[in-house]
């Protein structure tokens, strides 16, 4: 996924109210940017961090800048925008990168499904195979061992999505939980039991019921974010 226009660099002053961040741009201006990430952004929202913003060409928006990337204290570039993961994974499937999800004729996004009124991130269909429901999670946190962890805050919604995937598997379809790690330094992914033990329990229950867990990490630069490397899921 290439950025259509050059990103705007700056320094993070503070993130607050979940969706807002104050940033001092490289030209000295201080602006408030939209933060497209509902999580805690553990390790990704330290004041003083180098950040990159995308300017949105929409006069109706109150905040015309959206926060896209952050560079942490170790110099690792991290993609924090949860709104781009469907596109990242969809492109990787089309380009043949995700071996586990090849062989389907079509993909659709945000399709309503399930008993709990959910929307699946990607629905893969055709090719003479059962439909494949792919729930995608953006992963930005990494522990001291270099293992990425999800979620970075308690996520009732995350557990709900796992329950929905278990139901589609029971009905004969394929269910996949896909961890999209937007940083290059993670060597594996695991459930963050210390943050949300229910999610970890539900993930293990889902895997035992036939749901598949897949994880890929991305190379992140100020020019593009490219999903390119499979990493194991440790449960």
What does this structure look like?
The chain is α+β, with helices and mostly antiparallel strands and 235 residues long. The protein has two domains: 8-79, OB fold (Dihydrolipoamide Acetyltransferase, E2P) (Beta Barrel), CATH 2.40.50.580; 82-230, Trna Endonuclease, Chain: A, domain 1 (3-Layer(aba) Sandwich), CATH 3.40.1350.60. Helix content is 16%, strand content 40%. Strand 8 and strand 9 form a beta hairpin. Helix 2 packs parallel to helix 3. The two termini are 29 Å apart.
In short:
The chain has 235 residues and is an alpha+beta fold.
The side-by-side strand order for the widest beta sheet comes to 3-2-1-4-5-6
- Low-pLDDT regions: none
CATH classification class of the largest domain: Alpha Beta
Mean pLDDT rating: 96
Write the layout of secondary structure elements.
Layout: E1 8-16, E2 20-25, E3 30-34, E4 50-55, E5 65-71, E6 77-79, H1 85-94, E7 106-113, E8 118-125, E9 132-139, E10 141-142, E11 147-150, H2 156-170, E12 174-181, E13 188-191, H3 197-208, E14 212-220, E15 225-230
Parallel strand pairs: 9-12, 11-13, 12-14
Antiparallel strand pairs: 1-2, 1-4, 2-3, 4-5, 5-6, 7-8, 8-9, 10-11, 14-15
Helix pairs in contact: 2-3
């Amino acid at each position: 996924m290439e950025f259509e226009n050059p990103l705007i660099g700056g320094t993070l002053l503070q993130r607050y109210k979940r969706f807002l961040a104050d940033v001092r741009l490289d030209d000295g201006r201080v602006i408030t940017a939209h933060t497209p990430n509902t999580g805690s952004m553990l390790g990704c929202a330290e004041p003083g961090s180098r950040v990159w913003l995308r300017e949105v060409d929409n006069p109706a928006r109150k905040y015309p800048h959206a926060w896209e990337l952050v560079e942490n204290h170790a110099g690792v570039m991290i993609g924090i925008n949860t709104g781009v993961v469907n596109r990242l994974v969809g492109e990787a499937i089309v380009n043949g990168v995700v071996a586990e999800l090849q062989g389907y004729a079509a993909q659709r996004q945000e399709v309503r499904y399930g008993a709990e009124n959910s929307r699946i991130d990607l629905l893969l269909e055709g090719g003479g195979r059962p439909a494949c429901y792919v729930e995608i999670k953006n992963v930005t946190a990494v522990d001291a061992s270099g293992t990425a962890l999800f979620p970075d805050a308690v996520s009732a919604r995350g557990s709900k999505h796992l329950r929905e995937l278990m139901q589609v598997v029971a009905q004969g379809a394929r269910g996949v939980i896909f961890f999209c790690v937007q940083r290059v330094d993670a060597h594996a992914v695991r459930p963050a039991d210390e943050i949300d033990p229910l999610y970890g329990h539900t993930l293990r229950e889902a895997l035992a019921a036939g749901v598949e867990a897949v994880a890929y990490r991305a190379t992140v630069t100020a020019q593009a974010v490219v999903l390119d490397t499979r990493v194991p899921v440790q449960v």
